[in-house]
Amino acid sequence: MGNRLTQIATRTGDNGTTGLGDNTRVSKDSLRVHAMGEVDELNSHIGVLLCEAMPVGVAAVLVEVQHQLFNLGGELSIPGYELLKPEAVLALDEALADYNADLPRLQEFILPAGTRAASLAHVCRTVARRAERAVVALEGQETLKDTPRQYLNRLSDLMFVLARVLNRHRTDGSVGDDVYWKSERLLSNK
């Protein structure tokens, strides 16, 4: 991996290129750099979400996700290198099963709304989907391992489930609910 930065304003990117972890330079509009940026943005949104009140277990899962996203960003920054392990996808599968088990079945689509924490989790979900699309676009040009794509796919599912969990979490001990879409089609069938 490249040297750790001790100076932030290096000016080496002033010409529209950026350095990868293998010391090669690429255009800042390359698909690889786009994918790295989407993963970085996702990690930042999760950091904002972690500022909200939430169950301790959810916070612990999100902190681990941040570490794995850093691994994913590192893997994207070094072509051919593997940092994100398949076990990270399995950990998301386990968290999905655990948190989804206690949620009521959905009767309708839900809106990305409710508590601030749940709404931020929905933002994370949509950014995870965008990051996944960026990785898929990069896969169209370069060979990547399956794990980055699978991790982002599973993470977006987990963020949906965690949004539902966070809509139920109240610091006063009460229990909330999802905000359901009022479908015109369903309303007209009543």
Please, could you describe this protein's structure?
It is an enzyme of class 2 (transferase). It catalyses: 2 cob(II)alamin + AH2 + 2 ATP = 2 adenosylcob(III)alamin + 2 triphosphate + A + 2 H(+). The chain is mainly α and 190 residues long. It has a single domain, classed as Hypothetical Protein Ta1238, Chain: A. It has helices spanning 31-49, 56-77, 86-101, 116-139, 147-168, 184-188; strands at residues 17-19, 25-27. Strands 1-2 form a two-stranded antiparallel ribbon. Strand 1 and strand 2 form a beta hairpin. Helix 1 runs antiparallel to helix 2 (56-77), helix 3 (86-101) packs parallel to helix 5 and helix 4 runs antiparallel to helix 5 (147-168). The longest helix has 24 residues, at 116-139. The termini are far apart.
Question: Tally the helices: what do you get?
Answer: 6
Unreliable spans are none
State the CATH superfamily name.
Cobalamin adenosyltransferase-like
How does the major sheet shape up? 2 strands, antiparallel
Total beta strands? 2
Structural class by secondary-structure content:
mainly alpha
Total domains = 1
The CATH architecture: Up-down Bundle
The N- and C-terminal alpha carbons lie at a distance of: 61 Å
Radius of gyration, in angstroms, nearest whole number: 19 Å
The CATH topology corresponds to Hypothetical Protein Ta1238, Chain: A
Could you tell me the mean pLDDT?
89
**How would you spell out the order of helices and strands?**
EEHHHHHH
CATH class, please? Answer: Mainly Alpha
Estimate what percentage of residues fall within beta strands. under 5%
Major sheet strand order: 1-2
Helix content: 55-70%
* Shape designation: elongated
